[in-house]
């Protein structure tokens, strides 16, 4: 089944009905993803601090809308662990009622980012930053679930910062009994061991069902969903804008932006993983991924759900189960809806510690511990600084600051490395007596003219390399300078001003500057800035051989001397 979404509308067209085998394969894949999503949606909603039904509504509505209108055929969308720290912070500071508003704002921001084609820019986010804030999110979830896993009582729920919450938990460890931690450890044991025995059955479903049946059947005294949030409602929600509070708009702008950016990154990462699993010919539309997520993020809060993003694990499970189209995502939502209605009364007996155990395993998986350890052992020191700082800022301060710091630090380190790359090099013979990157004939001609300064410009002539470029092309200002521009494909204003200064300095001292092999994309820039006019007629050549001949007062007929085998 294929959908084509027009640029200015959010409705599918050119719908191709699937064949019966395709319909059956995607229905099975969607059911597998839905079964996995059911306990996770409940656990993630509880981790955020809202009733479990909000997580189920998110899987149902966000999953369906994103599947139909998104840019990936395979993404399974719903509540995810990546957003838990951000959403729980909003709940802690402004209450659960602020979540629909911040979700709607994030959706509008995603719409603007999609319109501006920001989807392509997110792909350039440094890998160390992605690994860093993902590991930081995992640590935040693990420590955040300690109170629920152990049933610690008497703690202050208004504490925001990691160190304060951790110390508060330590101070109240005396309130911990043995029953609830034992139930949590049993759940962890099932989660760890069942994948080996039943690899095709979601371990979270087995663990939740088994532990709930045991504690309910034997009357084990441990906090449950019903004791915390009451029974799950059986009715579907009605759309409502009653949550909107203009007074919170400014305060929610920063978390909304963070939710939009992080949700976009997670959705694109999921789409990339899905492309890799589906085959080399499958490619997602990054900007349409955002439009689909934007649509889901704007609509779901109106229906009682949470901000959502694509779930990599659920997407991968769907593909492994045979998903080939968006139909799998739709069936995922239908499956969650049917299970929610059928098992709603049973869900109230789920122990809170069992849900915490599920989240601990999820956090361990998203932390990518082997990848982090590999980077800690092998990555350059500068990248280690970015990685460790991003993790610590995520845990101790705020994910928004962590992403901002990581991107800024990576950019600064990149510029620092680019500065060390020579912006220009003298065209001199090497140890073998050859001038690199030119034909043997041109090499001999250059060596025969010590009265001329030969330089080749390299890479980007930009603000990061302008000063180095000016220093490197210094020579006898009275001698002609031939500057080969073959390897320059970008030049900014700083580079243009520097080049202009070099030309004027030579002209002031009676020297001559000649440019050769200017790339087609650079020539219009030189024309607009006046570089070609400043050089004057007869100082721009396609071939270095012709430039040398012009210094002697006679331009030879162009041939292939300096273009074969390597063009000048």
Give a verbal description of the structure.
With 568 residues, this protein is mainly alpha-helical. Helix content is 60%, strand content 6%. It has helices spanning 20-48, 52-69, 84-94, 99-115, 119-122, 127-144, 146-150, 162-171, 179-197, 203-217, 225-229, 249-278, 286-299, 312-320, 327-347, 352-366, 369-378, 381-396, 399-419, 440-447, 466-472, 493-508, 523-529, 531-535, 544-551, and strands at residues 77-78, 309-310, 424-426, 453-461, 481-491, 513-516, 540-541. α1 (20-48) packs across α16 (352-366). 45% of the residues are buried. α21 (466-472) links the parallel β4 and β5. It has a 5-stranded mixed sheet with strand order 3-4-5-6-7. Strands 1-2 form a two-stranded antiparallel sheet. It contains 25 helices and 7 strands. Mean pLDDT is 81; it is low at 1-14 and 554-568. The two termini are 52 Å apart. The radius of gyration is 31 Å and the shape is elongated.
Biggest sheet: strands, sense, closure? 5 strands, mixed
- Alpha-carbon Rg, integer: 31 Å
**What percent of residues adopt helix (DSSP H or I)?**
55-70%
Provide the spatial order of strands within the biggest beta sheet.
Answer: 3-4-5-6-7
Binned strand content: 5-15%
Question: Which structural class should the secondary elements be placed in?
Answer: mainly alpha
User: What gross morphology would you assign?
Assistant: elongated
Please provide a brief summary of the model.
With 568 residues, the chain is mainly alpha-helical. The chain has helices at residues 20-48, 52-69, 84-94, 99-115, 119-122, 127-144, 146-150, 162-171, 179-197, 203-217, 225-229, 249-278, 286-299, 312-320, 327-347, 352-366, 369-378, 381-396, 399-419, 440-447, 466-472, 493-508, 523-529, 531-535, 544-551; strands at residues 77-78, 309-310, 424-426, 453-461, 481-491, 513-516, 540-541.
